[in-house]
Design a protein that fits this description.
Number of strands: 9
Number of helices: 11
CATH class of the largest domain: Alpha Beta
Largest sheet: 6 strands, parallel
Distance between the termini: 57 Å
Radius of gyration: 20 Å
Bound molecules: pantoate
CATH superfamily of the largest domain: HUPs
CATH architecture of the largest domain: 3-Layer(aba) Sandwich
Order of helices and strands: EHEHEHEHHHEHEHHHEEEH
Structural class: alpha/beta
Strand content: 15-25%
Oligomer: single chain
Strand order of the largest sheet: 1-4-3-2-5-6
Shape: globular
Length: 293
Amino acid sequence: MLVCKESSRLCSTLSAWRRQDEKIAFVPTMGNLHQGHLSLITLAQKKAARVVVSIYVNPLQFSPDEDFASYPRTLDDDLEKLKNIGVDLVFIPDTALIYPQGEQQSCFVEVPVLSHIIEGEFRPGFFRGVATVVLKLFNMVQPDIAVFGEKDFQQLLVIRQMVNDLLLPIEIIGGETKREADGLAMSSRNNYLSASERKNSRLLSETLCLCRHQIEQGMAIAQAEEDSVKSLQGYGFVVDYVTLRETTALTAVTAENCDNTDVILLAAVKMGKTRLIDNLKFVYKPHINQAKA
Ligand code: PAF
């Protein structure tokens, strides 16, 4: 496994692979790798001859009150995992390479509308930071394919729109969310949870499952969302949102405009100082659902 910190070695290796007509898949990460990341890498390995993983904790996607300084950095452990799983190249750029003028002086990428709704309302600037760093990494790696986790579903759509709008010749693939045995979606931020918070955090995915069930049984969407918020608050979460959206532009779902439509329940909550997000996809069939109500 090759570990590159500079772009010259990265470029020469990538060029050699391209000359041999080898397809390149890319998995960008912020490190602190867990089974969720490794499953994205396994998916990438199925799609391409070569897999590149980047590790970079991107300051531009953290607001001043967020956890940039304390975000878990576990490079040695990460490299061991990547070597064991058979990654070809790990790219570990530093901020001088990514933001030569400093991150606040950098040109940025703004994906309209999608960046400012739902998660974007609670984390202003987050998707601008993500889109900007991902475009820079895409420009350096120039992959054929890039894989992103569906746990960050809105991020996946933001990247897809950026790639489409800027005509980048990259196929974006979503990898399914990996969960702990009790249902908690895997995330590097789960490490922040205390033992009792960790125990309670399973209630997030359980609440989403119940909400889906209620909607499938014919409960009005707004009522089901509201019940979920109340339950989560009762369990001790501070709730940012629980909302049902269709899966392409994340517009609100109504029985009139969304018959037999792929939908996603999106939620973000805080448990103590840890912010958790999760989602649940299903097909919304109001003509069947309403008959049950
Ligand atoms: O999902 C992440 O880990 C990050 O947002 C990403 C895509 C690596 C960009 O920094």
